[in-house]
Amino acid sequence: MTVKTKAEMRPTRVRRSPGDRAFNIFAYSLVVFLTLIVLLPMMNIVAASLSGSDALLAGRVYFWPVDPTVNNYLAMLRYRSVWIGYRNTIFYTLLGTFINVAMTMLCAYPLSQKNFSGRKFFSFLFFVPMIFSGGMIPNYLLIRDLHMLNTVWALVIPGAIGITNMIITRTFIQTTIPDSISEAAMLDGCSPARYFFSFILPLSTTIIAVISMYYAVGHWNSYFSALLYITKRDMYPLQLFLREILVQSSFDSTSIDDPDIIRQMKNLQATLKYVTIVVSTLPLMMIYPFVQKYFIKGVMIGSIKG
Predict the structure, then answer these.
(1) What is the pTM of this model?
(2) Same domain (yes/no): 175, 65
């Protein structure tokens, strides 16, 4: 039995060539640069939303609040349209995400089965809309003729399935769930429907979480469909109220009952845009750290689709 010396037990250092060191320096510098590009504007928006309007108008706010105050948020939370927008957006997001995930799974499962006779034909039908589209006016006329204007269905039915997410889900089922499970289940008399609900869905929780977040973020940030199909103000999503404030730089004073709050809102006009941006994006910013690992896995799944 040979005994290793301390020198032999030490971990061997890998010598890096000058080219490797230069590449590492470039890669780390690029990551830091891209991080600052994303982080600094966010810091500026948060700092502006917590600063006094005088400091903001004077251009003294950069990445840290000047004359810190929470009155901006207190005034915004008294703005009834924000709560109406939150209520509608949460409802549209939950309903739309449920429909999206259900339709995606129902389409991805049969297209992932090698013994599905119409697999190539239906795959072609799904891929065509990724290249060609009817356009905005035909879509509007279709929604109008279906009597879906000013209804929630106009926001959740036209985009009921995302082709890219369906491809990612199909690839996940093909590469993750072995065919031997299907063969064993069928030998035991399991029907295709029961196999889908008893095996495919439980084994696909990871990809379901991934596409659910993709769809939910899309619904939460969507405003163009509502701009086209919704004219009733009490059905506006939060992003339309945010658009009014950002684009038109105005707010509906008729929705506020307190005269003091109206005066306060006028005094806070300079900070109003920043407050609404933070209020509208805060829920997603709070949820994202908990699902980041699923997003990374979803990117890896999409990178091997074929």
Answers:
(1) 0.72
(2) no
